[in-house]
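Reopening closed ticket. The problem is back. First fold of the pair:
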Amino acid sequence: MTSPDKFALETERDFLLQSLENLESEYSSGGIDEDSYRNLHDDYTARTAIVLRKLSSDGKEIEASPPVSSRRRVLTISAISAFIVIAAISLAFAVGIRLPGQSVTGNTESTSDKKVSSADRQRRLEAAVVADPKDISARLLLAQYLEAQGDLALALEQYDAILTIDASNAPALAQSGRILYLTAGAGPAVDAAGLVEKSQLRLDAALLADPEYSEARFFRAIVRANEFADFSGAQGDLQRYLVTEPNGRFAAQARQLLTDVTNALSSPSSSGGGG
């Protein structure tokens, strides 16, 4: 990918993620009705997914995924929306990360009012990891920031590095499992199947390591419903997520997906899945 192409994608990514954030604020304040909100949200979400995948695959054309049933296609809308919300949250978080040498207000110790540039922010996060390669917290911050910048491959490298230090680190297992699923559509179908399987294994491992890590349940519900038509398993994960996180950052998406899988289970043609 040439520098101008990458810059254009990064600009579009920032615009779309900011648009999603603004849309959430406008909807929360009552400035937009639900139908308009959902239409705009689905549009921004689909466009953001394309941009992030192009960035993560170095601009290569993404092969179409194998066709899915109409029931699973309905679920996919909620699933992709939920995963892109994570990217939007990561971006907002990354912009506000307090770096070494900064005060609570984000200014440096020299009281400079200049904002830290994106490149400087990344260099300082990377420097913290170099200073102490076994600092899991530093690697988690860097991984979140890299993902917010659309570099899923490097973010995954950081999560994998964490797992070499602590193989049972639930956040690294869950977040890397989510990224593996996000990137499953960026290559040939045979590779996608392998990535989906790895995603499921990591999400299972995250919950074995920490059954109370609720985000792993939410992520696993998406994979179960979309890839394995395991609507019963997804329903259980979503119900437990909402019990522990009724006002969590993915609560709205979890409720919508729970409605979808419950409807799928009530369909005469639904197999219900297993596990």
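Second fold of the pair, where the issue appears:
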Amino acid sequence: MDLKIVSWNVNSIRARIDSLTDLLTIERPDIIGLQETKVIDEEFPMKLFHDFGYEIIFFGQKTYNGVAIALKKNSQITVKNVIKNIPDFKDEQARCLTLRILINETIELNFINVYIPNGSAFDSPKFDYKLSFINALLNHSQSLLRTTEHLLVMGDFNIAPTDIDVHDPKAWEGKILCSKTERNKFSEFLDLGLVDSFRHTCPHSSEYSWWDYRQGSFRRNAGLRIDHILGSEEFIKTCVGAGIYKDIRKHQKPSDHAPVWAKLNFSNLLKG
């Protein structure tokens, strides 16, 4: 059994209906994590997902943030639990959604879909919030790993882990998204036993998932890889591919992010 997972910061879901329609039509992912939906729950465009045969779970707020997870409706995937925000972390912003699902009533999977704060500037309270948020997310991830072998953390991390993930490392050295402090925090996810699915399958590839709207950044491919799908070691054993749907960034009125994806094959686990 193959499972295709996509994570995408849509930067306003109502502005990306056409691009989402293309993604759902062409790629048909099994699970989609969306960030920066920027819509209250009462106005979320559920019909789009229902029309394509998806169950959609969302957690939003007005104008900013917001996360959602869509799952293709079939008898193989069953949602067992939903958690909004990070447990034991007081937060007024809608940035995290955790699902526990069962595949074939056999394999338990935990998914965290997250929109980590940008941080703004090192001397800003927003940067302190970013670090506090990451620490809480690390604790949440570690707690889930105690109860299951299969954990996936996906979303906009707002961190480029290494220089290979940056178009111009010298220009970005020490700046927000690329600082040593932020990169050390990203490494703590790896220390938990999580693995970067893209880097696992493309160890030497310089590809990016975000390009600033300004200065022709996309045309010049002046981007950063800040969107990630991390999986526990048991998860990564099933990973047979990963990449970035860069072409979607060529659409009219695009998000500044491109969707990232990972393909998993659970056949051997299901046999066991």
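Update: turned out to be a display glitch only; the data is intact. The two ends are 13 Å apart (CA to CA). DSSP finds eight helices and 14 strands in the chain. Please close again.
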